[in-house]
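Predict the 3D structure for this chain.
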Amino acid sequence: MSFTTLPKIGMGTFRLKGNDAREAVKSALSLGYRHIDTAQMYENEAEVGDGITSSGIPRRDIFLTTKIWHDKLHASDLINSLHDSLARLKTDHVDLTLIHWPSPDDEVPMEEYLGALRDAQREGLTEHIGISNFTCAQMDRAKEILGDSPILTNQVEVHPFLANRKVVEHAQELGITVTGYMPLAVGKVMEDETLQRIASERNVTPAQIAIAWVASRGVVPIPSSTRPSHQKANLDALNIELTPEEIRSIDALDRGERIANPGFAPAWD
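Done. Predicted structure below.
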């Protein structure tokens, strides 16, 4: 099966290592996830590949994403590193390859690495291509460089404390789906009174409310969890329809709290 769009939710694997990563992927797939997100930098591609292989779910039914780290953005490095990723993932292609971060200080020209990414797509190493942590101006440039080659997604941090509105809306105007990482703000959503109140009124968890809010904005959440019960709850959160009033209350929690902000990050919008 060839995916033309991103599945509505994904299983994130950031910070999952070794057997935890293996088991988490296997359990997520058994519960019904069909989108698994990893990256070269997570150092778990081999375990993610093991989890997929041992899940018994056919590879063609799984949407698999990986990301190229910023030290592999020169054209020849990018293609070689993607071949290495595929070997670790035990597959002949991924469904989506992202540039994990724009090249710090534009050390490698965007034309070079996006051109190489498009070459990888033409070679059949990846079905779709996309970007991650790109600003509005960088999305515009990427779109200009790639011309007719569609950018499937811009994967950025999105949770109730960082709505990232400008980037989300700009991407959606450009026809680029937004994938939201850290939708639970590394667990901080569990401690928020507004989310607790809405959750208790609905007899669900604050995490489920946060995921439902991200999804209500047309953003694809990719929560990370090793526990099957949490994975299932995250999946079930897609069935929660928040009222306009609940959405307004959650919108008000935005405080620009960015968790992923390394020294080489771009100048954020």
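The longest helix spans residues 75-89.
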